[in-house]
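Table S2 (continued). Query chain:
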Amino acid sequence: MSNIPFALIVRVVASEFDVAVESVTGLRRHSNTAKARLTACYMARRITSLSFSDIGKRLGGRDHSTILQGVSKIKEDAANDPVFAERLEQIERAIRDEHTIVEARKKHQMINQSFTL
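Corresponding output:
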């Protein structure tokens, strides 16, 4: 599993669905917001070691069974809709790419700081 922060996953998914991060982590149930939230759950399970309970806590205190059901729903949607399955792959690539950029910036900052000391 990767060390990709959950907040980065939510930020990228929110951007991909054109919703606010607060909507993904909040209690709203609008269709697009709910789909973004379920996708964030799916991505978190797929690319991190977070448990269903951990994900639920980070998404407004939702129960682990709600997260489990959401992940199952996204898997089912992807199995039945190749366009959505491709979108999930694109979102995962975007998350991994963003993480790579963030990590590179951190290393660059550390190198710069070591030269200024």
